Amino acid sequence: MVKSMTGFGRCETEIHGRAITVEIKSVNHRYFEFSCRITRGYSFLEDKLKAFVNARVARGKIDMFVSVGAADDVPCEVAVNHSLVSGYLNAMKEISDTYGVPNDASVVALSRFPDVFTVNKAAVDEEQLTADVLTAADAALNSFVAMREAEGARMKADILGRAETILSIVSEIEERSPQTVKEYENRLLERIRQTLENLSVEVDEQRILTEVAVFADKVAVAEETVRLRSHFEQLRAFLSLDQPVGRKIDFIIQEMNREANTIGSKVQDAVLAHKVVDIKSEIEKIREQVQNIE
What we know:
By secondary structure, the protein is α+β, with helices and mostly antiparallel strands. The chain folds into three domains: 7-72 and 130-148, 2-Layer Sandwich (Ribosomal Protein S5, domain 2), CATH 3.30.230.70; 76-121, no CATH class; 150-290. The protein has eight helices and six strands, in the order βββαββααβααααα. The relative contact order is 0.13.
């Protein structure tokens, strides 16, 4: 299934008394690039989350945001650093005695000094927390992938539609190309007749046929149109695969452009030249879409 590299997913839930929020978004990138911003103290989760996402996402610049709240039932002890408080009080008394200012020390004021309190929390069960966060991440990732798939389906339909347009133009070129040879032959005969009109010289039919044959070989585009059709068959095949195909299709688009350029260099007819421009325009639009395919 074709997937876009642009997507967004979010899950906000509570598991085992913890509020957990996971948000994931992505944009185009040639490779898989992952960055994670997570609540301080839980950095041990980053590698696990990266592997978890990479198992389902092959390409794109992925940004993940994870918020992990404190568990309601986790014991927490707040201890007072008495020696530090005593030191602060003595220092404040010294300032008061030395400079004759009121000593208005209070519990609130003291509590604001650094390191007065020490918070001791129970050790985190990393295995359980990892499972909980991955559960939330899975829900966010499901939403994220669904969005990429929906966008990918729209892109696939657009690409196939443009492919049909191009193949229709290719058919017109194949039909028109032999006519240009006949028109060249007629123009060549007319110019020769006009030149030799007042001269007693016979037209060398064989020489004319040779010139026409050279011209026909020069403007022949059958090989290029056959290869172009083959590339579109490959394109359809890639779009039906259930795996990342963005890079493969990008290569096919380059080959299509090469064939279109060759056809453009061969045609010597204004009508065909305009059709080649139309083909190149549609190929470019496909290329722009392909840049966003995983």
